[in-house]
Amino acid sequence: MSSILRILRATKELTPFYVGIMLCAILTSASALIAPFVIKGATDTVVAYHNGDQSRGLSVIVWFAVAYLASQLLNTIFNNVGGYLGDVMSQRMRTSLSVRYFDKLLSLPLSYFDEELTGTIISRLNRTITEIARFIQMFSNTMSSMLITTVAVLAISGWYYWPLAVLLIIIFPVYLWLTSRTSVKWQVWETEKNQDIDAASGRFNEVIGQIRVVKSFGQERRELGLFSKLFHRTIGTTQKQSRYWHLMDIYRLAFLNIMFFVLYLIIFVRTIQGFFSIGDMVLLIQLMTMAVAPVTSLSWIVDATQRAIAGSQDYFKVMEHPADPRSLAITAEGEHSQEPEPVKAAPGEEIIRFHNVTFGYEGEEDVLHDIDLSIKRGEKIAFVSESGGGKSTLMALLEGLYDPRTGSVTVDGMDIVGGDLEKLRSQIGMVFQDASLFSGTIAENIAYARPGATEDEIEQAAIKANADKFIRGFKDGYQSVIGERGLKLSGGQKQRIAVARAILKDAPILILDEATSALDTKAERAVQKGLDELMVGRTSLIIAHRLSTISAVDRIVTLRNGKIEEIGSPTELAQSGGIYSELLSLQNSSTKQDKKRL
Ligand code: ADP
Per the UniProt record, which residue ranges are transmembrane (predicted)? Predict the structure, then answer.
């Protein structure tokens, strides 16, 4: 329950809504309580009339009817105003919780996403927030009106005849006890079911995202099988849940009916005995009917409460996950200025320093050992290793995505741990193997690095990236929409847009992470032209798969099993017998074989 209170505290701005909804609930209940008294008055008048008291005749009855109508109209109005406020409040709450959740996700360290599937994260977000918002809406509207009705019914019936109130009071805790006993077991199944749904959604998202791979491996049936197995398991769980719930419902309702049987019996007997008038009897019967709804609602209230508790606990589990303390997502308003700060280091002076760096991913062994490396401003430096040697990890450390276990990384004199990440990110431009474009226009994609860029700046960047010509070849030019439902670009075209994006960013340090390794020779040449332009005057760190693309760098650093093996110029290392010369001769021999085959 404390987690729900935390939600309420976290959404303090909605307090006027809570108050408004509760006020409407009070007025709805109060107006509903008028009707039984009106009918009691009318009944007593009719009975008196038949018994010879003609002083209060037809005109009084008409007034009773008018009062009844007025109470019902008021009831409808208050009820609907409350409903309207509830809907608006609920949507505001969803929005507020979703935005916070998204903000939190953006601020979490990369290691969180290494462990969680995207679809699972999305499914959990939808489920938890829907359940929390539904509960709060129900609580503030239905539940508070029921609470008021119950208290009023207890007070009025107690005032007429106290044993009625005592019996009613007994019903509530017993019914609640019967319900909550059921729901403990029920909740365990619910958690099981949610885990299956979240896992199925995670897989669903992955499969749709990589539908091409699934199809080319002909794995549609297997994926469907996995997905349907997880979902089918939820049918079994729901069957167990529902069977148990409804069986217990029979017990609960049997108890309830016996109690109401006794209550009605008391009312009828006491009326025959003359203790109650006919009007009193009619009033009390109506009050008893009004009390049934809150009691039977206890079961779904308990159900909704528990779902909301589970939902809010899941919500806070994510919200309490320690954020990356230097994340740029922390609820800052507006966009970050991505203008790179001027570099302090003069050309030829040290700009990047890895100082005895050791690093391992969370809960795993070290993958980088004792990396000591100094890079000068303007230098072009390539990293070579076998796959899994630690090149990408080294770049991730430079970007401040992970902190080293020991040692330090400094960029332009600033230690990345505890440093200004915004400044760091503004100083690094990147081109990855996978161009990672978003759906939107080509211009928007190029401007992703600098949202305020002018059309002319975007075009200049594209010209340098050797992309302008093919972009203009599209019917809508720079405004062509790419992405899921838009234009399909080739690997080389996407990569040239990514290069244009990096050129526009104009950062002094550049990371090229296997930027051309997924391309064929022709596309590679086109992209390389852009990359050469991009690298002019920038400190460039290049991870290359094809060694031919790095023959012009100043130095090569080779890594073996996470350790630096050699550092030297391409000509030096080609002769040294280290990993670079090994890979070089391997690539040369395969190229020769390829040529022979042709
Ligand atoms: P390279 O870029 O040279 O291929 P990586 O830096 O990608 O090498 O990988 C170095 C090592 O770190 C490998 O053993 C790899 O399995 C491991 N590794 C890479 N990324 C992660 C990750 N997100 N979580 C755990 N281990 C990882």
Answer: 16-39, 59-85, 132-154, 160-178, 250-269, 281-302
Q: In the chain, how many domains are there?
A: 2
Which of 401, 359, 400, 352 shows the shortest CA–CA distance to 380? Answer: 352
- Residue 361 alpha carbon to ligand 1 centre in Å: 8
* CA 432 / ligand 1 centre spacing (Å): 15
Task: State how far the Cα of 497 lies from the Cα of 501, in Å rounded to an integer.
Answer: 6
Residues 239 and 104 in one domain: yes
- The tens digit of pLDDT for each residue in 411-445 reads 998 898 888 888 888 888 888 877 778 888 999 98
For residue 528, tell me if it sits in a domain. yes
Distance 199 CA to ligand 1 centre (A): 25
Prediction pTM value: 0.71
Residue nearest to atom 25 of ligand 1 (CA): 361
433 lines ligand 1 (CB under 6 A): no
Give the domain CATH number at 272.
Answer: 1.20.1560.10
**Mean per-residue pLDDT, 27-34:** 90
Q: What is the pLDDT averaged over residues 307-312?
A: 84
Are both 297 and 409 inside the same structural domain? no
Q: Which domain holds residue 578?
A: 350-597
Task: Give the pairing of strands 406-411 and 414-415.
Answer: antiparallel
ipTM above 0.85, yes or no: yes
Q: For residue 140, give the DSSP letter.
A: I
> Do 423 and 545 belong to one domain?
yes
What CATH number is associated with residue 539? Answer: 3.40.50.300
Whether residue 415 is found in the same domain as residue 295? no
Q: Tell me, what's the pLDDT at 436? A: 73
Average per-residue pLDDT for the chain: 86
Percentage of the chain modeled with pLDDT above 90: 32
Name the closest-CA residue to atom 21, ligand 1: 361
**Residue 513 CA, ligand 1 centroid: distance in Å:** 13
Please tell me if the CB atom of residue 391 comes closer than 6 angstroms to any atom of ligand 1. Answer: yes
